Batch of 2 targets.
Target 1
Amino acid sequence: MKVFVTRKIPEPGLNLLRKEFEVEINPYDRALSKEEIIGELKGKDGLLCLLTDPIDEDVINSEPKLKMIANYAVGYDNVDIKVATDRKIPVSNTPGVLTDTTAEMAWALLFSVARRIVESDEFTRSGRFKGWAPMLMLGQDVSKKTLGIIGAGRIGTAFALKSKGFNMNVLYVDNRLNETLENELGAKKVDLPFLLKESDFISLHVALNKSTYHMISEKELKRMKKSAVLINTSRGPVINEQALVKALKEKWIFGAGLDVYEHEPEISDELKKLDNIILQPHSASGTIETRTKMATTAAENMIAGLKGEIPPNCVNTEVFKGKL
Ligand code: GLV
Ligand code: GLV
C-alpha cells in the first residue's frame, strides 16, 4: 500500500511507515497547497498530514482509494471529520504524547508575560540597563494568585496540576466536572464570566469548534482584571485577534502570550508592535522528544488503520460500528 506524508517528520516515524508501505514525502521544506496535496494523493491508501493542511471534502473525495488519515497533531480541526466518516475513513490524532510539552509552553509564556522577560532581555541587551532601579520592569506575582483554566481536558489538566508549587487558587470552565483538579488542587468549576472576572492568569486549552470560535472577544476581555494575563496555546480563532489588539493597546489587561493566531501564519501588524505580548511560532509541542513521539504515534495509527484495525487514537470510531 502507498502512503503520502505531507511534510518531513522525524525519521523514527517515517521508518515505521517504510517497513510496511511505499512512502512518499513532500520533498519541499514548506507546507503544500491544497492542489498539491490532491495531486500527491493520487493512488495513495493513506494520508499522514499536518495541522496546517486543509483536509476538506475536495481533498478527501479526490482519491477513491484513500482509507486512512493520520493527523500529526492533537487538534484535528483541519480535517473534515464528517466527510471522512461518511467515506468510512478512520482519522487519528496524536494525544497524550504532547500534553506536558504543551502545558510547559503555556507556563513558559505565563512567566514570560508576568515578568516581562522578552521586553527585559531587549532592554538589557541594547545597553539601556543602567543599574538596579525600584521601578524597573515591574511585573506580576504568580504565587498564591488565581489561575483560570478554560478547557480542562488533558492539556488543561496537566497545565493546572503544574501550579501546585505556586499555591494557586484554581478555577476552571469545562462541560464536565474534573475530579483530578477538584481533588488535587481544590479547583472549582465555574462559568466563563466568573472565571474571567476572578482570574489573574487565564489559559486557553479548548479544541476549536463552533462553540469555541471567538470565545474570547471584546466582552470577555473587558470582564478581565486590568492585571490579567491571557495565554493561548490552543487554536488562534478561539480569540478574536482584533479585540485582543484593542485590549492590549488600551491596557484593559496586563498582557498576553500567544502560540497560535487567528489567521495563522499571518499575524496582525498591530499585535507585533505591542510590548505587552509575547509571540511564539505555534511551537508548544516543539521539543525533540515530543515531535519524535508524535511521528511514531501517527505512524502506528496509520499502520493499524491500513490493516483494517481500529487505530489506537481514532477520533471517529463510529466508522467501525457494526465491525466491533
Ligand atoms: C498542535 O497544535 C497540535 O494540535 O498538536
Ligand atoms: C534585590 O536584588 C534585592 O536584594 O532586594
Target 2
Amino acid sequence: MLIRGGRLVDVVGDRGGDLRVGRDGRIDRVAPGLDPLDREEVVDAGGCLVVPGGVDAHTHLHLPVGEVRVSDDFRTGTAAAAVGGTTTVIDYVTGPRGADPLEALATWQRWAEPASVDVGLHMTFTGAVDEGTVAACVERGVTSFKLYMAYPGTLQVDDGVILDVLRAAGRHGGLVTVHAENGSAIETLRRRALAEGRTGVFEHSRTRPALLEAEAVGRVGVLAELAGTPVYIVHVSSAPALAAVREARRRGVDMLAETCPQYLELGPELLERADGDNFVCTPPLRDPWHHEELWHGLSDGTVQTVATDHCPFTVADRRAGMRARPQGWADFTEIPGGMPGIETRMALVWEGAVAGRITVEDWVRLCAEAPARTFGLWPQKGSLLPGADADVVVWDPALRQGLDAGELHMRTDHSPYAGRAVSGWPRLVLSRGRVVARAGRYVGEPGWGRYVARSPRQGARG
Ligand code: MN
C-alpha cells in the first residue's frame, strides 16, 4: 500500500511525503514523490495527516471490579481503540491480592487473545514481591509494574514495599508506575463522611483532595530518589500534583508523568447531576483551573504521556454498585470508578492542537511516541521509521465525529462527552499493515492483535 500526499508527522518532524507499507506489515519507505508499484493499492492522503498509530499506555479491559466487571473486554475494547486511531494498548494485569502474579499474567494473556490491535501488559503488585518474580516478568516482556498508594485493604502497598519494588525493578530494567494518592488519609475522610451521613456522589470528589494526590507524588519522588530509579506517575489529575512532579524533576528525580483526557476536560460539577455516578473516577475530576495547568504541563514537557485509564461500566452496573445491590449502591464508596475513553483519546488531544494549546508534533509525541519509548516499544511502535510496524493512522482534520455512546464503539451505554462532537477522526487505521478501521467503521479481525513483549530500559544496573 502506498499512502500518498499526506502531511507526515512523527519524531522526524512535520513534512509532506509518501509512505509505503511493505508486504511484511512494516513501514518500507518514507519519501516524497514515491511512484506506485505494480498492483499496489494507493491511498490519497491529501488534506490528511499521516501519523504513527496511537499507544494507550493505561487501560483496564475485562477487569473484575467487586461483583461487576468492566464492560469492555479485549475484543470490544481494542476494536473501539482501532476506530479512534489507537493501535497498541498496554493493559494492567491486576489479580486479586494474594494471587500469583505469573498466573495472573497467563490469565490476562488468554483474555487478550481476541484483541484486534497489539497488546502489551503491565504487572500490578499488591504486596511484597521477591526479586525473582520481577525478573520473571521482565523476561516475559512485562517491563513495567504498578503500585497503588491508595485503596487500603485491596490494592495499596506501604512505602517499604514501594522502595523494594523500585530497587528490584531498577536492577532488571523495569519501570514502576504509581497510582499516587494518600490512601490512608483518604480512608479517614471517607469514614468521616459516612459517619456524618454524607453519602452522595459528590463526596467521592470531596474525600479525595488534590493535596493528598500531591503529597503522594512528592513521597514517591523521595523513594525513587533514594532508590536511584525512575518512576512514572499514572493519571496526574491536579495542579498541586503537577507542581510536585516539577519539584521532583527539579531535584533530579527521573519522574515521568501521564494524564488522561478526562482530567483535561471534565469538572467535578458533573458528579452533582442525576447521573453523577457515571462520572466517578479516581483521582476525581477537578475544577477547570487544574485542566489549564495540565495543558501547560503537556506543552512544557512536565507530562509526557496522555493515556486513558479506560475502565468502562454499563449504567446498570454503575447503579448496582460494586456489591451489585438490586436496589442500587448504598453510598458513594460502592460506586465502581472509571470511565470509557479508549476510542476518544486521540481526538480529544487533537482538539488541544487545533486550539493551539499544544503543537501537532506534541500531539503525536504525547499519544504515540512517548508511551512507546517509555514502555519499551520504540521504535517498533510510535514512529514512522522504515522497519517499524506499519501501525499508521491517516487522520482527517475535516472528519466530524459525534461523541454520544451510540456513535462510538466502546461497549457501554453512556459517554462522558455526550452531546459533543469533534472535528478530526481517523480516515484509515492500519495495524501491522492490515486495515482495521475506515472512517469510523471497524473493519478489523478479532485475534489479529498480538501480545507484544516489551524491552527492558537501557542502562539497568542488573
Ligand atoms: Mn487505572
